[in-house]
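Side project, low priority. Logging it here so it doesn't get lost.
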Amino acid sequence: MLEWKKDGWKAAIALGPTLLIMAVFTFYPIVNTFIMAFRNNYKFLSGVDEGFGIQNFVTVLSDPRFLGALKNTLLMVVVSVPITVILSILIAVALNSIERLRGFFQTIFFLPYVTNTIALGLVFNTVFHKDFGLFNSLFNLGAVDWLGAETTYWRAFFVLMVYTVWNGLAFKIIVLLSGLQNIDKQYYQAAAIDGASKWRIFRKITIPLLSPMILYTTITSFIGAFKVYTSVISLFGKGAGASNSFGPDNMLITVVGYIYNKLWEAGTPFGVASAGSVILFVIILLITLIQRRVSKSRVHY
């Protein structure tokens, strides 16, 4: 306590600029979004509304486009998160078992994380191109349209999932690999003396001791999957033909895409987009709390 009283002002000076920036660009927008969500027919430029209520939430929850966006987002979460987490664990364990080229492979796997999303989208547009794409040529599929006007829901969804899983591996592998390297080697040595198989060592030692990192990557994966938007834009843009337009009525619109469209839609009150943001926030919060509740008996610290 004496140390804090003596040097507390130094900490305040060091944290002051960061806290100020967060207050302006993080805390205030969050609070303001909640306020706007309950202001009926709120006009942002004039600051005029028709009182407080839940009309914005009724508008969002009764909109078929929002329900479709929520269905798309939930499907992406259910498919991409388990695949990404499981693959990340397996790759991290494999990398941890080698020494000579570990740094090289870490760099290779981490590249997508630091590469521009639009650049990755251009790469995937080339790989899945209808006429000269590598994917069609590799599997001898002919001129299958994956990303253009003639694509179907499940074709586009397949490409999006491949992109999401591949792009999501990088950060998780690094986090899990750091966790693996902090596990005491004596556990593995004792298991080897007892003649335990590799599968039993993986199931009884690696997974339990790695569980805090697995929980962290799972929670962040769920949050990231619910906020997916840039990957859809980088792959499909805002338009991909008349029949399968990827604009406001697109077939792979996500909740964040819906919120963005409502934010700039002419004649739509700002409160509608804010209500959509609050609903997404509540969904993510509930799932995170459930994960933490379930993991209490399964995570070993």
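Brief comment: The two ends are 28 Å apart (CA to CA).
Revisit when time allows.
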